[in-house]
Amino acid sequence: MQIVDALIQSLYERGVRRVYGVPGDYVLTLFDRFEQSPIEMICTAGEEGAGFAADSHARLNGLGVAVVTYGVGALKLLNPVAGAFVERSPLLVISGAPGVRESDEHALLHHQIRASDTQQRFFNEVCAETACLDSARTAGGEMLKVLEAMNRESRPGYLELPRDCVTRELHWPLKTEPEPRPMHVVPEALKSYALDLLNWLRSCKRPLVLAGVEVARFGLQSTLLQILERESWPVVTSLSGKSLLPERHPLHLGVYEGAMSSRNVGERVESSDGLLILGMPLGDLDTGIFTMSFDQDHCINVDLEHGVRWQGGQEESLDPLLLLRIWIEESQTDHSNRQSVTAACLPTTSQAKFIPDPEQGITVMRLIQAVDASLLAKDIVVADPGDALFASADLHLPESNDFLTSGYWASLGFALPAAVGAWGARPDHRPVVLLGDGSFLMSAVELATLARYHIPALIIVLDNAGYGTERPMLDGAFNDVHQIDHVGFARSMGFREAVRVSTEDELWNALQRLAPARDSPVLISVKLPQNDCSDALSRLTEALGKRVKS
To answer: SS3 of 155, please?
Structure first.
């Protein structure tokens, strides 16, 4: 078996059916072999786009792959890979490289900087594991080591493949099938500790769970939902963890993000006498710039980095995976008289209604209400950082894992290429993209990718003539964005449908007309007042203003 065959087979056996990339001379042979394999190669307009596409694919399917050339290609991936690292997304970078022989014989090769291992050392900082497959003797083991580390930590990995090593024969057979995560025997002391936490929450009068993105990254949604229904505990999610559970489930109260939260959600969380914060690193955006307000004495915090922290102490070995495993095995009837519930026995939240005012201009709040009322059962919302993200907290998504964003890394330009990866992971779903006019300019070339592969995405551009999230902080001409014809640009990229709207009636008609299933992308450019913003951003600005004045 050749190195390239082992690589492709290992990816296929881990569920990969599409990869994303941009060809270059150091990686052409690898591209050719992918085209001959059962894995489809999606060629994006740029390498950063390939990275964001692979990132979103990984979030939905558990492993995403970006294939690029050396130097000028791979280094463009450092931004999306860094975001995938901090947000625990298993994105695999496969980079071509100069051949081993030519590197030894020639000091100056194009795309190369400093030493031959410089690029790998860059990726060491933002990956769970890296390897250079430059030896048939070690390539198989190194490849599997990277894939296993990615699976274990849910973080990126990096493989470098010199072009003269692609077709080298491995020295012995390689077992390419993924190994299941080991189920270690839980020590009795640890189990007892976990059950003490469970019983403490059961004793509370107003228990509540605040679930974060780590629950989704490690596939814990179903287990968590079973526990919530068994215990009748209500749940809210962080903004980056939005839709990790179905948002129309009767136990789902909404999104909590400190001062940015709606009044009802904020009061419910902050009045809880038993708050479980599960799998939620307390970053600034998820906490509304650290405006969360609750009693630490009534709180249990469980995440992957620190384990359990609460008033009773700390237990580093008890992470969200192990805690939920112990809790799901525990019989509810032995410890509680509380009657369990299921989604089937409770009414679900109905979809919002929207009645447009024919002559009224569009605001961010009304735009989100219209989108919420028009979402289909199999839509995946992809929101770019900024007010498109903050406003989308008010959407109600019917299925779990239907929301993607760069919620911690907060990289503008994420959403358009992420829509490519969302479709690649779930081709029976429609990506609905919300992004500002500033982030549109950073990634607009990926409209060509959407058109090339007939991806049925709905692109909604929030056009407020600048960086609206930054204006309340410090405004100036630097926050203005050069106005372009979004409709004309989209059509030049191959879009058959693109419209500009400025009234509620025009917006609603466009959403209804473009909602049916299509075999190509569509774009709606929405004219918004320059100083308008979402309710969430208004609440945050007000709260931060009070801090400054106090």
So the answer is: coil
